[in-house]
Amino acid sequence: MERGTFSSGLAVFFATLGSAVGLGNIWKFPYLTGQYGGGAFLLVYFLCIIFVGLPVMLSEFFIGRSTRKGAVGAFEKIAPDTSWKNIGKMGVAASYLIMFFYSCVAGWVYYYLFKAIRGDFVSITMESASVQFGSVVTSAVIPLFWQCVVMAVVSGILILGIRKGIERVTKTLMPLLFVLIIICDIQALSLPGAMDGVRFLFEVDFEKLTGTAILTALGLAFFKLSLGMGTMITYASYFTKENNLLGTGLKVAASDTIVSLLAGLAIFPTVFSFGLEPGAGPGLLFMTIPLIFSQMPFGSLLLTAFFFLTAIAATTAMLSLVEVPVAYLMEEKNIPRRTAVLINGVLIFAIGILATLSADKASVLGHITFMGRGFFDWFDYLSSNILMPLGGLLIVLFTSHVVSRRSFAQELTNNGTLKIEWFLPFFFFVTRYITPALLIVIFLNAVGIISW
Ligand code: TRP
Question: What is the CATH number of domain 9-446?
């Protein structure tokens, strides 16, 4: 079967950035930055990117591009007949778990975009904002319908393939996402009292930089860059052979952070200007934002722009997630792309129903819990807290202990054409000792064995 590739370095950049930029930029990153010490947290976050994010990312790039295989096949090619390929299988499993609940939240975002266009938020109040959101998450029909729309859109794009699908969509939508964020920023920053929001986001406060803050920064660096579950392996298998892997990694990490900060600059000045308390997660996205944006000049238009950019972020992240099992079925089971996409689209929707109907305690299946967590929470916990850090750890152990330094160096320098030799000793030292040590700490903290 013919294997697709991206057509240029720019396409590689936008597709990879499309995977990194997701719901995490809008409901997680800005809030955590404000809560854990602003500029001080950002500094730690940058260190985490350098010592954990980039080493894992470059390892995944190496594994994918040098083998031109998806998550499972790549390990099999480098280390045939060993159990290392189970890392790939774990990645496929983690992708599924994330997709089950990510597609549900993406569905809410699509629905809110639809509501914003329809003008549902024009006379919204604090109470009606939470009643509206409550009725969405507990309904049995609406969220399932929109989750189905999300899967149809994502499947439709993936059926078109690497260049006509993923590449074309990310190259068009990622620049649009930037433009939309900047429009929201200009409007937010011109509100009276906007500086309080800017201060919340950036004011350096080392007192808030606790152990928990540092661990949060580590986990965030990992989640933000879509690492530890074979997504970057799969995408890298479509990279051009001239691509500078280190350059792509740095550009994607930097741009992803900029998108998060721009999102924060649209959200917090507005929240503070209207005298509300900032909060994190679904509440911020689906209650606070409609409430305050609707009271601003050009409110309905801005709200539409905001949910449109959030929908873009969620969709391009979903593309990279679904591509993991699609590549697996195509390569390992010889199934044509169209069938592989359809099988996955239907499967994710079918099991995703469990997540959607258990998203809230009052949802249809909300009463079913195992050890205190419902389906939605289990999918989230297992993927983000267990499989992602564990996958990342095994990936760096693989590239630093199984792969020869020579072949890793050749891939990073494109067979010696890129002059980055000075960087390699530092990089190999970090991937061998520092990254695994930090990942073990994140993992032990995530499962609750150690805590700060
Ligand atoms: N990076 C995405 C975000 O910020 C979330 C994510 C985590 C992800 N792991 C992934 C996306 C794997 C795609 C693939 O929201």
Answer: 1.20.1740
